[in-house]
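Sanity check

After download, print the first record. It should look like this:
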Amino acid sequence: VGELILPGARFPLQMAQDPDVGSNSLLSYQLTENPSFRLEVKETPSGKKQPELVLEAALDREKQSSFEMVLTAVDGGSPARSGTVQIRINVTDANDNAPVFSKSSYEARVRENVPTGSLVLQVRATDADAGSNGRVSYSFSNVPDAVRTVFSIDSESGDIRNVGILDFEERNKYTFEVEAMDGGGLSGHSQVHIEITDENDNEPEITTLSVSSSVPEDSPPGTVVALIKVRDRDSGENGKVWCELEGESPLSIVASSGSSYKVLVLVKALDREEAAYHELVLTAVDGGDPPRTGSTRIRVVVLDANDNAPVFNQQVYTVRVREDVPVGSVLLTLSATDADDGTNKEVKYS
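Expected structure tokens:
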């Protein structure tokens, strides 16, 4: 009997046979009590009694898949004699149940550097029907290509795996719908929320926004030499960056009003005569474990200021000259040098 058959349906049963005659062969039927079925006896044109089962209430195979009853035929003799037969009714399945997911929504967290093919989560759905009507297959439901290029779902197991590279900095959350469909075409749906967690996979980036490639040596301390932007695409501690200068230098790093900006300023006077240029290595270190670093080189040329006077090679020159020396004779050649550069070192004598 199909589970969707309507109440009132009739099922003729085989009539009992009694070889006696007269009242000894007159038969009546009895059925063990059952809330879903009742017995009716119809009289045929030939006068025989035909037993029929009549469905009283709607069937539900998922609640009860079979019924067992005993039909008894009793003759009219004295004493009466009877015969019995067992009736077994199997309720056949109809696809009247859709797949149901174990959760209305699934949530998972996955690291951004997880290897391709890793299991992210598993969705599960059950169907109360039997056979192909209860066999469930899984798929994405109206999912954009941006999700399909990153995740896949196994149609049989419901396993969701990553098939593409996960990048927290590109996208840190995915929300999409999955579908479970049975063999009869009924389906159920559930939401999936996947959060991508950050890994320290980006080095700090240093960008020189402005730099004075040359600085006069008489610039006062506090003069801004360069403005630098430091950025790390990671988040949290992985994205926190501090900077340091390698080696000894007359410059120092000072944080500006923006947390991602740094300025290089003079902290002591320059002296071109000691160092004509300063080549700095600026290193940025993030707070990851282990930390990642980025670096850049900055070259600052020191421009000359006229801060040095000419210096004779002798403080006193003594010359002995004969009184009859001819006019125009060279008595002495003086020499003076200047430590400055360019026109500042050109010396004139008077």
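If your output differs, re-run the checksum step. Summary of this record's structure: Residues 251 and 266 are 5 Å apart (CA to CA).
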